[in-house]
Structures are given as C-alpha cells and as structure tokens.
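Troubleshooting entry. Yesterday's outputs looked truncated, so today I'm pasting the complete records for two proteins to confirm everything comes through intact. If either block looks cut off, that's the bug. Protein one:
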Amino acid sequence: MNRRLAATIAVLTASFLLAACTPERTQLIPEESAVTAAPTGEAIAPEDSPVYQQEVEWSRCGELECATLQVPVDWTDPAGPTVDLAINRHGATDPDARLGSLLINPGGPGGSGLDLTESFVVSAGEDLLAAYDVIGFDPRGVGASTPIACGDAEQIDEFFLTDLTLDTQEQIDAAVASTTAFAERCRELSGPLVENVDTSSAARDMDVIRAVLGDDQLHYLGYSYGTQLGAVYAELFPANVGRMVLDGAVDFLLPAVEQAAGQARGFEGALMNFIDWCRGEEGCPLDPNPERAAAQVRDIALTARDEGYESLDGSPVNGNVMVYGMVVTMYDQNSWVYLQAGLDEVINEGTADIFFQLAGFYLDKDPATGEYLSNSQWAFTSIGCLDAVGDEPTTVASLDQMRAALDEASPTFGWWFASSVGCDGWPWEAKEPVTALEAADAAAPLLVIGTTNDPATPVEWAESLSEQLASSELLIFDGEGHTAYGRSNQCVIDAVDGYLVDGQMPVSGTRC
C-alpha cells in the first residue's frame, strides 16, 4: 500500500503540472513589517506607480532564475506600501528565436506559479520553449510572495474540514459567524493584504511584471482560474494584451449556483466515465451495473459524512476528506487507478487510508504530520470571496433551492457542493471588481481552450467565455481531465504553439 501511495503522488503531480518541490513558505506576521514603504505622494494613476520603475535582479535557484518584485498592497493607493511578488524564469532555449516573455499561471486561485515553471518546461512544446522566457509567479498573498496567513493547521482543519449540518437558520447563522471569525483572524495575521488579494489586483501585478521585464505586450498562458486572471487582465489592459491562451476556461461571470452546478455535473460525469473504465479493469471492486456502481460510491461518501471511516493510523476520514480524496483523482484519467485502489480498500478492508492520503495531496497537506505545505487552501478562499461581489445571504430557503439543483446535477457529490455557506460572512469585497467583459473586446485575439469531459471547468464554460471575449477563438480537446495543453495530445500542442510562436490562430471550433 505504501508503494501504491507513493506512486499516487508521482502520477498526480504530473497530472496537475505541479513541481516536485515547493518553495519555503513563511507566515506573515506583524502588520507593520508585512509591507515595505514606497515613496508617498498624491493619488496617481496605477500605471504611474513607482513600482513600474523598479529593476528586476535575477539570481540562480536550481535550474531556474528567481527574483522578487514589489507591488502595492492596495492598488487604490498605487504609491503606497508594497509587498513582495516572487517570480522565476526559464530562459528561451534559442536566443535567436526569442519573442519575449510568456507569463504562466496554474490556477487555483492560490496555486503557485513558481511550482508550475519546472514542470511546464518539461511538458511544453519545443518551439514555445525556444521562443519565450517562461515566467512563473506566485500571485499576491500566495506562497513565496508575501503570503496571507489564517492560523495554524488545527484552526485551518476546523474551518475547512468540519462537516457542517445546515438545516436551520441558527445553524446557517453559526456557519456565517464562523466565516467572519476566520476572515478576521486572517486580517489579524496578514494585515491589509488579505483585503487586497482579489483577481483585479493580481492582474495589475501582472502588468508590472510585463513592464519590468521590458515587454510591450503581455504574452500569457493561464490554466483554470488562470483563465479568469487572464480575462480580467484583458479587461483592464486591452491594449497591452499580446498572445494569450486561456486553457480550462472559467466563466466567472456565471452566478455562483450555476458555477457550482456546472462543476457538480462535471464530477458526476467524470465518475460515470471512471466507472465505465473500471468495469473493464481486473480487480474492479464495483458492481458491474453502472447505476449500482454509482450508488456504491455515493454510499461510501455519505457514510464518511454520517459515520466516518478511519485511515490506517486512526486519523478520521469524514465527508469532506472523502470527497477531496475522490475528486482529486478525476483531474486526469491517469489517476483513475488510484480511485479504484481507494474504493477497493474501503469496500474490502473497511478503512480509507488511500483517500486520506489523496485528500492530503489535494489540500497540499502532509498526511503524516498534519501540517500544510503551502497556504493555497486559505488563499483560495480569500481570493474567491473577495471576487464574489453581490452574493445573496444564505437562508434555509436559498440553501434548499441550491441543494435541489445540485442534487439533480450530481446525485453523488451534490450534497457536498451545498454543504457550506460559501462566502456569506466574508467581510470584504474587491475594490475593482470585473463584472463584464466589454473593454476586452479591443484586445488582440485570444485563444480559449476547453476539454469535453473536464470535471472542474466544464467545456460549456470555455464556449461561453469565448462568446464573451469578442476577439477570441475556441479550441476543443476531446478527452478526459482538467485542461489540455501539456497533458493531452500533439494536436493541442501544435495549435497552441502555432499561435503563441507563429501567430497562426486555429480556426474557431477546431477539435483535437
């Protein structure tokens, strides 16, 4: 079993385009030392911020080069205090063919772009690597950039991993109060940065990276949430958009319930595709009948929620942990073997150690020590809740309505998507929210990519985002899993590299 779990981590690491190691994380402490004073003055336009005048100083960090930039804590005060923004670089392999810099983002929100760079340069096309300096970055509040902090592992677990019962208004109110208390602890530990890790602020940081690297235009490839970041950049800086690829597109302008329903349907569909695959594999523990097999998986998830399982060391596996452990295997079909192994353990041994380990991978948490290896989990919430402008308060009626919609979308996972109050109770909203994509119409052509059986960002989102971005074209990968470039086929690599390197946009609607 230990060998099997070790292999799990190896396969999933490749699946998610994450590097094998992560940079050292430090907790942000005293507010006064969390920021560095920049020149003060009267209010100025963001593009006139002193941070645009800084020079980047590179140093070696393994096979790459690393540097740290400064960006304003609060972009409404562009000449005010600053925080660190960590970047790294893999130089173009053919200086004679070099076109400039290509900024990459792995998604999340809260994912580390520094981690992405090492694996990206292994999976990307040779023509792309010859033409671009690949630039990774940890967005504001994340990882090796000045990070937000929200407490120790026990406090994080209590907030994120507790299974909630939300049947009465009193229970809902208690959950909302818990969200507010969690946010206030983040503010106490992180200072004003936690109020300013929204997507628009991160997009403004990207323009600083573009400028200090000496590029007139931003060339960009973003995965998953990184597509939202790219689209917001195009809205804020349409004239600065160069060649931009949005892979695993998020339609972030959809109402929250519709987004949740889309993902619930996506993971239900991935589960059924897994079941079809498993039925043809030797040792599949599931019933040969697909509907009965789906019921088995559903019962395991609900038993974890209502009664719980144990891992081999006795650590509890509740509903949240079980679902995290299941869905993490659905991001790439190469990981289905580990979903099969986890189900086999539960069905035949009555323990859930594999799902416990898999959940730890999803959460970037060491299952052996219980410590979190990065701040991606609470960065995800802090960024997402700042962006969630205009969400309605949660009530018994609204939650019942959501449950009905999500149960219909996913009989297996719908309850889980409806088992929290979301961002209700988060005290702050983004100061510059993007609620429409209109200015982006003036941007240079963008390439939007969707995968037909993507569970996390359904292909319909790529189609709708492409419709909203008037200058975009749509590329479809017929396949399983989350995102396409670097994990799909040569057709996708040729299409993306042909656009990024040669400027040849594939015909909209091309399928690979």
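Protein two, checking that the full record survives here as well:
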Amino acid sequence: MNGFEKRAELLKAKIRETVLAMLQDCEPKHIRIADIASEAGVSQVTIYNYFGSKEILIREAFKHYVTEHVDDFEVFMSRGPTFQQFVEYVVKADTEAFRRFTPAFIQQMMSGDPDFAAYIDEVTQQRAMPLMHAFIEECKEKGQISDKVSTRMILTYVNMFVAQSQKLLEEAQQSGKGEQFFEEFLHLFFYGVCGIEPEA
C-alpha cells in the first residue's frame, strides 16, 4: 500500500468513525451527508467518491464495527478463557452494542438491509459459531461444563440471554448500579437462584 492509499484508508476510517459516533444520538434518516462531512472535516464529494451514498456508508461503517468486534473476540478466545469468562465477555460485548446504538437502528440494519444481514450471517456461521462450538467442547473435556447438556443447548442458553441484552442494559441503568447488576446477573446465570457455588 503506497502513501496515497494509506491516506485514503485513514480518511475512510475517520468518516466511518464519524458516522458511528453520530448514530449514537441520531437515527440514520436524520443524518445528512452534509452533517457527516462537516463533522469529519471533509467535503461531501469525498464521501460520495469513497462510499457512493449515505446508505452504503452507514452499512460499511457498521460492518467495520462488527468485524473489529469479531476480531477482538477471536483474540479473546485465543487466550484460553474459562467458560465463565466467555459468558461474561459475550453478554457484556452485546450489551455494549446496545449501549452504543439504538435498538431501532440495529433492527433496521438486520431486517431492512439484506446485504448487511447476509454479512452478519456469514460472520456468525463461518467465524463465531465454529469457535464457540469448539470452545464448549473443550470446556466439557476440562470439566468446566456438565457433559449432561449438549453443546447446542448450551449455545441456545447463552443466546437466550444475549437476545435480552437490551432489556438487561435498561434494567442495569435503572438500578443505578450497573457493575453490581451485571455481577449479580452472572452469578444467577451460573449458580441459579439458590446461589450454591461449587467447592474450590
């Protein structure tokens, strides 16, 4: 990559980050190319040259966000976490996405943009799921997970909670004690209502 290409990539990254920051407070329909250009300190022509349209820019920015988080997840998994650390990471990462973007925006991207939905399905099936499946099997061998429960059921159980990330975030915010809330949630996830922890 030559100097011109490096500068172009840095400029694209700046534009994407600008859009992601704006999406924390605004719905996509309320964001104009002129606003993005002003915030990023570039011309509208530059944005059109790099991305073609506002819709493509928003899709590419969110795809880049997702890709970075999948990359981070792979790095995390390579460190050999325990199953408890894995669940904590997954739930908090998903909750962070809902903290950064509105549920309406995420739903719009998933159901209103076939290309983005296809991309998410591809990333999930080809990168995330094989990694999680192998990890759970390894945890079973180490005795960290009961071998009485199938890998599919464990993934279903984890995904059930992940699907409620928005509700968890709302409850945590209403409690006024976010960290304590998630500590109690994770304790409940692993040890149930009775709270009986295994002996060390």
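Both blocks look complete. Sanity check on protein two: The chain has a mean pLDDT of 83.
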